[in-house]
Amino acid sequence: MVAITRRIESGPGISDDLAILVADLFKFQNFIMALSSAGKTRLFLAQKDIREKTDGLHRDLMAAHLRFQVPCTSLTSS
User: Fold this and answer.
1) 12, 14, 21, 35: which has the fewest Cβ within 10 Å?
2) For residues 75 and 70, what is the distance between their CA atoms, to the nearest angstrom?
3) What pLDDT is recorded for position 40?
4) 35-51 exposure pattern, b = at least 16 Cβ within 10 A, e = fewer
């Protein structure tokens, strides 16, 4: 699409209708790029949220494990 619009724009001159079409094509292209970027942002945020929750669960699990772990000194003294 970009190559087509560049060829049209580089010509000797274009009609007003064609200029409107080219402008609309660029608007559509920008809209699609923004939509794609927003999708990637949503995906990144979802992955970040999942990673943060997983990390939080891991921290909680490690804390619980350490809390219920029997110290080695108490085993040898009894």
Assistant:
1) 12
2) 8
3) 87
4) eeeeeeeeeeeeeeeee
- Show the tokens assigned to 28: 């559509």
Query: Cα–Cα distance between 43 and 48 in angstroms, integer?
Result: 8
Q: What own/partner pairs with CB < 8 Å and gap ≥ 24 does 29-35 have?
A: 29/1, 29/2
Interatomic CA distance for residues 30 and 1, integer angstroms: 12
What does the domain layout of the chain look like in residue ranges? 2-68
pTM attached to this predicted model:
0.46
Distances (CA, A) of 36 to 14, 21, 24, 25, 30: 31, 22, 18, 16, 10
